[in-house]
Design a protein that fits this description.
The chain has helices spanning 43-50, 72-76, 94-104, 113-120, 136-148, 166-181, 216-221, 235-243, 268-277, 292-304, and strands at 3-14, 17-28, 32-36, 58-63, 66-67, 79-82, 154-157, 185-190, 201-206, 209-214, 226-231, 248-254, 257-262, 284-287. The chain has 305 residues and is an alpha/beta fold. The two termini are 34 Å apart. Bound molecules: adenosine-5'-diphosphate and magnesium ion.
Length: 305
């Protein structure tokens, strides 16, 4: 393994609030690494520290062997950072935004155009359109092009797919895979749990700290729980009643069904019979396949207990 990023007990406070709490992790060169967590879990604060824009209160962070505090000037040329809600100048045109970011880094758009061509391609048709007048998906492509124009070794993408339609989201992840194949290390955050599977490894964050770090498939395999789907004609009543059953560890809404975490003594046939007796119609309880969202719920539950 060849870590390109090393975080060692990074802590950041805003007044009395601990936004990032003793976070330690490493990211390997060339890896697609995900930071997954709900709003407020500390993702953006961590990004700002990695991007050398914020000093940690405690701990150290190195990128390519350089310290994010002491060597910040050097690091800024090696990092491509796409902040939350993008960093574009809304009143500048597509072309002007790109040239501006290139000039910040002392490069010409031309010399690195090969890297962004597959992404920027669709924007070539309207170079004079103001960034503010682009669709969400197009803004995202322009912002990514701007973050790449100096050919960074590392891409820091903070929730790049938030507020972007599902088709553009899919396309965006495909673009990231292409960039990864070119050797760029990518650290990408999201609060969409389904996007986690597009990463090689993920850090699951909650309330400033790391719950676990592993490959998505290892995390799901580690669920080791009796997981079921449950449906009936009265979903709310079903939720309340399942939660009150002694052999049910947890029950929560999951898309159009409920997910039930049963203890070893949970028996789905007996539970269905009980629910039918108490007036539920069309009750079905059947085995469910867990995913990253179930992992997140389990990890936060384990922590509470
Ligand atoms: P995320 O990106 O996962 O939503 P953030 O890093 O933005 O998380 O925020 C983590 C916590 O720190 C939140 O509770 C947020 O309200 C708080 N926070 C973030 N930035 C500031 C700031 N500049 N001043 C005070 N509190 C902040
Ligand atoms: Mg954020």
């Amino acid at each position: 393994m060849n870590p390109i990023i090393r975080l060692n007990e990074i802590t950041k406070r805003y007044g009395g609030l601990v936004a990032v709490d003793e976070v330690s992790l490493t990211v390997d060169r060339g890896e697609m690494f995900g930071i997954i967590g709900p709003d407020g879990s500390g993702k953006s604060t961590l990004y700002k520290i990695l991007a050398t824009l914020l000093k940690p209160d405690k701990g150290t962070a190195t990128v390519c062997g350089f310290d994010t505090v002491k060597d910040y000037k050097r690091l800024r040329t090696m990092i491509g950072y796409m902040p939350e809600r993008f960093s574009l100048y809304q009143d500048l045109t597509v072309e002007e935004n790109l040239s501006f970011f290139a000039s910040l880094f002392g490069v010409s758009v031309k010399e690195n155009y090969d890297l962004i061509a597959p992404i920027f391609g669709q924007l070539e048709r309207f170079p004079s359109r103001k960034a503010g007048a682009l669709s969400g998906g197009m803004k995202q492509k322009l912002a990514l092009s701007c973050a790449l124009i100096h050919r960074p070794e590392i891409l820091l993408l903070d929730e790049p797919t938030t507020g972007v339609d599902a088709v553009s989201r899919g396309e965006f992840w495909d673009m990231l895979s292409t960039l990864k194949r070119k050797g760029i290390t990518i650290i990408v955050s999201t609060s969409y749990m389904d996007e986690a599977t597009r990463c090689e490894r993920i850090a699951m964050m909650n309330k400033g700290h790391i719950l676990d770090i592993d490959t998505p498939s290892n995390l799901v395999a580690g669920l080791g729980e009796n997981l079921y789907n449950a449906v009936s004609d009265d979903m709310f009543g079903l939720l309340t009643q399942l939660r009150s059953m002694p052999d049910v560890i947890d029950c929560y809404t999951f898309g159009a069904t409920l997910h039930v975490v049963g203890s070893n003594s949970f028996n789905s046939d007996k539970a269905m019979a009980k629910l039918l007796v108490s007036g539920h119609k069309d009750v079905k309880i059947y085995p469910a396949k867990g995913n990253i969202e179930d992992v997140f719920i389990k990890l936060t539950r384990d922590e509470r207990e």
